[in-house]
Task: inverse folding
């Protein structure tokens, strides 16, 4: 007993001395793999046997290491290593490495992003088809003479003004209402094979029936016929309004072209209503094929009718009208294969809803047109050279908006589908993602224009004075693109939740503020005041849209229009 206690006591003292020398702490990791536990049969205490560690060789103090490091020659490799290993550089590299994944995750193209782009790209090409067709017409008519070219320009301006006022609102309304009805059908339908309120038996085939489609097409036919009568009968009055007097050499050809062009109003409005339906189905490829086929036919018929048959500008008008009927026919033919185009009865409440909404969007379009017209008027007061420069800037400024218009269209269709179907999480994701893609698109357009606007503007004129003034507007043309992109995308989001009332009233309010600014700033600052006024116009649209959608919160509350079951 005594001997065993003495051995244990001596062993404990020895272990204590080893701990004091710090050897046990320095070899903890190595000993964790090889330690063994031994039990004294007379005591319950356990002792850990730790192998002795060898002392480190060539041990240096930090001061000695620093002194030795300073003696080494300074090389480019050493500098590079020392820079990246310094605390400041290391912190910077680490912060960048943490920031890049966040940006990549924030702006990555997930399934929703690809869906947005798959809708937007065909729509962008379809939107670009009409300006390209107009350029082709201009090229052919230009060979007839300057008077004919000027006459066609005036007539096309009148026709496009009427189209923007009445036809485009119907297009946007149809897109939203069709997408909403599609979502409500998916939400409420419990048996896709039954024939009920959402389906009809036509010629032995069961077809989907959406009241918004038949209502939109009926209104389109009525609006188109009314436009055709007004443009053909009132062509003389409209020429007087445009300042083309009876004794002007442009009067007769302009009036002749507008009278013939008026016959194309019904197919144009019907085709736009059909395009709105396909957009509501999130199908932008079918309208692209139809518009492409029609414009190709127009380009083929132009030289044949203008030069071969000797019809002049009348041949250009006839070629355009024929191509418009072809576009309408293709769209209606494809649409008839998917849904029923004729309603069993006309719903008066739905027609009233359409007319009321069209009225709101007409007021909104008027606010935009008045603001843009006043800006052009104030620029024209500066003289022909500044006006020419302003025309170059404004045409480029508006042309690049086609891409963001296509994004707005994609956001409108997706948001209308998710929001009206009660899928608010999806609707919120659509809002954020479309705005993100719109912002990236706007920044990309700004960078492209900053680099290429100088060379691009020389395509419009060779006048050095005009080019100098036009290039001074690069800050307006390029710098405003991110703001423009967000503004156009927000327009589509308004329509996606059918918030047409706020879209109209906010635009009128923003337009009034911008008009006052233009009237005050343009006489003082010239073209710079005009461009600042247009930038203010777009910036206020963005502010109104972000406030409405509460960008850091949820989408606006509204009452969903009556669904198909009411």
Result:
């Amino acid at each position: 007993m005594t001997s065993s206690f003495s051995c244990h006591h001596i062993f404990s003292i020895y272990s204590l001395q080893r701990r004091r020398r710090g050897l046990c702490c320095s070899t903890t990791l190595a000993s964790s793999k090889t330690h063994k536990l031994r039990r004294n049969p007379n005591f319950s205490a356990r002792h850990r046997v730790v192998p002795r560690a060898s002392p480190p060789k060539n041990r240096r103090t930090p001061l000695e290491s620093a002194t030795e490091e300073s003696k080494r020659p300074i090389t480019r490799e050493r500098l590079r290593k020392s820079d990246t290993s310094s605390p400041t550089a290391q912190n910077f590299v680490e912060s960048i490495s943490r920031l890049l994944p966040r940006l990549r995750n924030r702006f990555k193209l997930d399934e929703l992003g690809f869906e947005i782009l798959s809708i937007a790209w065909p729509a962008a090409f379809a939107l670009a088809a009409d300006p390209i067709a107009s350029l082709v017409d201009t090229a052919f008519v230009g060979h007839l003479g300057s008077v004919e070219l000027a006459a066609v320009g005036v007539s096309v301006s009148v026709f496009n003004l009427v189209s923007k006022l009445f036809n485009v609102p119907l297009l946007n309304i149809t897109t939203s209402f069709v997408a909403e009805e599609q979502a409500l059908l998916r939400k409420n339908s419990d048996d896709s094979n039954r024939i009920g309120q959402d389906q009809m038996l036509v010629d032995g085939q069961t077809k989907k029936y959406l009241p918004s489609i038949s209502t939109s097409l009926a209104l389109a036919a009525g609006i188109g016929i009314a436009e055709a009568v007004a443009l053909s009968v009132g062509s003389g009055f409209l020429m007087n309004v445009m300042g083309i007097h009876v004794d002007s050499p442009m009067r007769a050809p302009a009036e002749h072209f507008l009278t013939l062009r008026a016959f194309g109003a019904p197919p144009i409005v019907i085709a736009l209503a059909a395009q709105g339906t396909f957009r509501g189905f999130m199908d932008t490829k079918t309208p692209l094929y139809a518009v492409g086929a029609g414009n190709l036919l127009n380009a083929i018929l132009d030289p044949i009718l203008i030069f071969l048959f000797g019809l002049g500008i009348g041949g250009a008008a006839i070629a355009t009208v024929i191509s418009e009927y072809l576009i309408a026919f293709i769209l209606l033919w494809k649409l008839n294969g998917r849904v029923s185009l004729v309603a069993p009865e006309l719903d008066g409440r739905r027609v009233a809803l359409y007319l009321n909404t069209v009225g709101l969007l007409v007021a909104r379009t008027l606010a935009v047109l008045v603001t843009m017209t006043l800006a052009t008027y104030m620029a024209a007061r500066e003289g022909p050279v500044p006006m020419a420069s302003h025309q170059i800037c404004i045409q480029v400024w508006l042309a690049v908006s086609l891409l963001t218009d296509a994004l707005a269209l994609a956001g409108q269709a997706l948001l209308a589908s998710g929001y009206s179907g009660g899928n608010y999480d999806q609707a919120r994701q659509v809002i954020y993602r479309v705005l993100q893609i719109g912002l990236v698109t706007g920044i990309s357009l700004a960078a492209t224009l900053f680099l290429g606007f100088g060379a691009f503007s020389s395509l419009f004129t060779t006048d050095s004075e005009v080019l100098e003034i036009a290039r001074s507007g690069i800050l307006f043309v390029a710098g405003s693109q991110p703001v423009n992109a967000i503004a156009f995308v927000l327009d589509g989001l308004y329509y996606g939740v059918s918030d047409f009332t706020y879209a109209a009233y906010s635009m009128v309010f923003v337009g009034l503020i911008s008009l006052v600014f233009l009237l005050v700033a343009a006489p003082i600052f010239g073209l710079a005041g005009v461009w600042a006024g247009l930038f203010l116009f777009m910036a206020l649209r963005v502010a109104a849209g972000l406030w409405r959608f509460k960008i850091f919160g949820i989408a606006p509350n509204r009452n969903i229009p009556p669904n198909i079951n009411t």
In short: Residues 146-188 form the longest helix (43 residues). The chain is about 75% helix and 5% strand.
